[in-house]
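Structure request: Ornithine carbamoyltransferase, Glaciecola nitratireducens.
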Amino acid sequence: MHSLLKLAVELKTHPEKFGRPLEGKSIVAIFEKPSLRTRVSFDIGIHKLGGHMVYVDSQGSPLKDREDPIDVGANLACWADAIVSRVYEHKTLVDLAKGANVPVINALCDLYHPCQALADYLAMFEKLGGVKGKTMAYIGDGNNVTHSLLIVGALLGCHQTVITPKGFEINPNIAKHAAKLAFENDVSLTIANDIDELGQADILYTDTWLSMGDNTPLAQIKEKFAAYQVNEALMKKSGASYVMHCQPAHRDLEISGSLMDSEQSLLMLQAENRMHAQNAILAMLVGNVALD
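Returned structure:
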């Protein structure tokens, strides 16, 4: 993971060193869920690396309702050099990979959002001069972003804190896996429900309280999450230098609008880095760029 982060840094700062590693390559991007940052950053990033992206819109119904994902993967692998997929269920990715003999890249599923996490730690690296030994504190709904931040962060040596309301905790199996990785990499891990257990952190991170497709009444969500809003007071209490949010963000719900617009906000850097992080993954898996 350290080598992949290093490659992302190099691709961003010195793209001319790598030429066009995806020259002559075609990447199929199949999306069950709508997207702004993921779709555009993959499309432009693949073009910058010399490749060609074919976008397949599967929105409206899960892929499995139309055709078995194993068969979809096998068909796409007849023509494409890799598959990028943004899906509802992790099992869909697993089945795509079973059918395909080309790399399948997770552009988001219900359990993970790895491209987002790598982009976030790239931003941390740029702003703090490193990742190892720093502390990332996630506050809010325990979700796919939280899971990937924990796993990638532990592998990079970043201390972790996760504070969620009761009933919105992270997946227990992933929590167990993250704890194992934290132990192996000499990283501290705090998982709690009480916001007062936040402690000190270098970066505070939050995500939307209302995930895409969630029809829970806003008043009910506010009642459970109000104490977990990331704002200037919480930044001061934790000593955090910066705030992150993977977007889309709801101003003055999970994060104060004034904090989003402040110099402490890394939201646009995170968005920018989606392309560079994904380019590193593509260059490694498809462009045969070696990791140091």
